[in-house]
C-alpha cells in the first residue's frame, strides 16, 4: 500500500492511496475462501461450491466488502502515520475497481488546524469594576417581599399597577384574528411588562366584569415578521382583579425569608450575593475580551465541519425552546432562518476560541489532574450541602463534560494570570 497526503490548505487534506493488485488479489481470494464455508448454493454441499459459481452469486458483494475494508485500512494508516486529526467524514474519489490492476483512490477531509499560539501573555484588557448600589438591594428585597405577599380580591375600584388580573382576550391586526392570539382566564400582573407595549397600560382603570378594546403595538423586532411593528386591537373581558398585600419590611420578614436574625442581615446577604453575581459576570466578560484579543494576534482557518456541528446543536436547542412555548413549526422555521448568519458567526467564534485554548494548554502543559476533579466535587458538595460521593454519582456518565469544563477553567485562569488587567 502506497499513500501520500496532499495539503490543500491548513485545514483540508487529500489522501492519495494506491493499493497493489497483488494485495487486492490476496484479500479477495481470502474472502472467497471464507465465504465458501458458509454459502448455500443450490446443488452443492456447504463448502463445495467452486469459485466460479460463488463469483456469479456473490462477486459484487465480495469485491465491495473487500474494497471497503482496504479503503478504511488505507485511510486509518495515512491518518495515523501523518498525525492528522480528522474533524469531518472523508469524501471518496476513485474509479470502479478493475480486476488484475492496481487500485487508486483519494479521500478528502477536513482536519483540526495545528497552530502555534503566540503573544498570549501580557495582553492588556480592562475589567469592569463591580459596585452594588443601594437601590439594587432594595429592588431585590422588594421581589423577595412580593414572594410572601397575599392576594386579595379588589372591589369598588378599577385596575391599578401592581394588580394581578384574570381576563379573556383575543387579538386582531388589520381586522384579522392573530394566530395564537386568544386565551381564556389569562393571568397578568399589571406593570410587569409581560405583554406587548400598551397592553397593560390600556387595562388600567377597567373594572371587574368590564369588556372593551385595548390597543397595543407589536415591537418592530417582534419574532413574528407578520406582526412586527403593527398595531393590534385586543378585545378584553375582565374576570377578576386581585391586589397583593405585602408583609411589613421588618426583622420578621427577614426571618420568614430564611435563616436571618434581622432585616439588616438579610440586606447584607443580598448585597453579597449581588456582588458575587456581578463579579462572575465581570470575570466572564474579561475572559471573553481576553480570548478575542489573543485571537486577533493568532489568525487561523477553522474547519467548516466543526462550525456546522456547533450550528446544528444550537438550532436543536433553539427548536426545543420554541417548541416548549408552543410556537408553530412554520414560525420556528422562519425564526431559525432569520438567525442563520448570527448563529454561524457565534459558532465560528466558539470553535476558534476552543481551538486556541486547546493549543495554549498543549504548549503550556496544562492538564486536569485527579486532585482537580476531587477538589471540584468537594466544592460542589459544600455549596449544595450534599455528600461528595453523592456528587460523584451525579456526574457518572458525564465525566468527559466535567473534565472539559475544568480544563477550560484552568486555561482561562492561566491566561488571566498572565494578562495585564486594568
Oligomer: single chain
Q: What is the CATH homologous superfamily assignment of the largest domain?
A: Trigger factor, C-terminal domain
Give the biggest sheet. 5 strands, antiparallel
CATH topology of the largest domain: Trigger factor, domain 2
**SSE order:** EEHHEEEHEEEHEEHHHHHHHHE
Unreliable runs: none
- Describe the global form: elongated
Describe this structure as you would to a colleague.
The protein is 49% helix and 19% strand. The chain has 422 residues and is of the alpha+beta class. It has 3 domains: 2-110, 2-Layer Sandwich (Alpha-Beta Plaits), CATH 3.30.70.1050; 150-245, Chitinase A, domain 3 (Roll), CATH 3.10.50.40; 281-421, Trigger factor, domain 2 (Orthogonal Bundle), CATH 1.10.3120. Strands 6, 7, 8, 9 and 10 form a 5-stranded antiparallel β-sheet that branches. Strands 1-2-4-3 form a 4-stranded antiparallel β-sheet. A two-stranded parallel ribbon has the order 5-11. The longest helix is centred in the middle third of the chain and has 35 residues, at 263-297.
Q: Notable features of this structure?
A:
422 residues, elongated, Chitinase A, domain 3, 19% strand, Trigger factor, domain 2, 5-stranded antiparallel β-sheet, 3 domains, alpha+beta, Alpha-Beta Plaits
Task: Sum this structure up briefly.
Strand 3 and strand 4 (103-110) form a beta hairpin.
Amino acid at each position: 500500500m502506497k499513500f501520500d497526503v496532499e495539503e490543500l490548505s491548513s485545514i483540508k487534506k487529500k489522501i492519495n492511496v494506491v493499493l497493489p493488485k497483488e494485495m487486492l488479489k490476496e484479500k479477495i481470494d481470502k474472502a472467497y475462501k471464507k465465504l465458501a464455508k458458509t454459502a448455500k448454493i443450490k446443488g452443492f454441499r456447504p463448502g463445495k461450491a467452486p469459485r466460479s459459481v460463488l463469483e456469479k452469486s456473490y462477486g459484487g458483494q465480495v469485491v465491495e466488502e473487500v474494497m471497503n475494508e482496504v479503503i478504511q485500512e488505507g485511510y486509518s494508516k495515512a491518518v495515523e502515520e501523518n498525525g492528522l486529526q480528522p474533524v469531518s467524514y472523508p469524501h471518496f474519489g476513485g474509479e470502479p475497481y478493475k480486476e488484475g490492476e492496481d487500485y487508486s483512490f483519494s479521500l478528502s477531509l477536513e482536519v483540526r488546524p495545528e497552530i502555534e499560539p503566540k503573544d498570549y501573555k501580557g495582553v492588556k484588557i480592562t475589567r469592569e469594576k463591580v459596585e452594588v448600589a443601594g437601590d439594587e438591594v432594595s429592588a431585590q428585597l422588594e421581589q423577595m417581599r412580593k414572594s410572601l405577599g397575599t392576594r386579595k380580591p379588589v372591589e369598588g375600584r378599577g385596575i391599578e399597577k401592581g394588580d394581578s388580573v384574570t381576563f379573556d382576550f383575543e387579538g386582531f391586526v388589520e381586522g384579522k384574528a392573530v394566530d395564537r392570539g386568544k386565551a381564556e382566564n389569562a393571568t397578568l400582573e399589571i406593570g410587569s411588562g409581560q405583554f406587548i407595549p400598551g397592553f397593560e397600560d390600556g387595562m388600567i382603570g377597567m373594572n371587574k366584569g368590564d369588556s372593551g378594546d385595548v390597543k397595543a403595538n407589536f415591537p418592530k423586532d417582534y419574532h413574528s415578521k407578520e406582526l412586527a411593528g403593527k398595531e393590534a386591537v385586543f378585545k378584553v373581558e375582565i374576570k377578576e382583579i386581585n391586589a397583593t398585600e405585602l408583609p411589613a419590611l421588618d426583622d420578621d420578614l427577614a426571618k420568614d425569608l430564611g435563616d436571618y436574625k434581622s432585616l439588616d442581615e438579610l440586606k447584607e446577604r443580598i448585597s453579597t450575593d449581588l456582588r458575587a453575581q456581578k463579579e462572575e459576570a465581570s470575570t466572564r466578560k474579561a475572559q471573553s475580551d481576553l480570548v478575542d484579543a489573543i485571537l486577533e494576534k493568532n489568525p487561523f482557518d477553522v474547519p467548516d465541519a466543526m462550525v456546522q456541528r456547533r450550528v446544528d446543536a444550537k438550532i436543536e436547542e433553539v427548536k426545543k425552546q420554541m417548541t416548549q412555548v408552543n410556537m408553530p413549526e412554520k414560525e420556528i422555521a422562519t425564526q431559525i432562518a432569520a438567525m442563520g448568519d448570527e448563529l454561524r458567526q457565534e459558532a465560528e467564534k466558539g470553535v476558534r476560541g476552543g481551538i486556541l485554548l486547546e493549543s495554549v494548554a498543549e504548549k503550556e502543559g496544562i492538564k486536569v489532574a485527579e486532585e482537580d476533579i476531587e477538589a471540584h466535587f468537594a466544592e460542589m458538595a459544600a455549596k449544595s450541602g450534599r455528600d461528595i460521593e453523592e456528587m460523584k454519582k451525579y456526574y457518572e456518565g458525564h465525566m468527559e463534560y466535567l473534565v472539559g469544563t475544568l480544563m477550560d477553567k484552568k486555561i482561562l485562569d492561566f491566561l488571566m494570570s498572565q494578562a495585564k488587567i486594568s
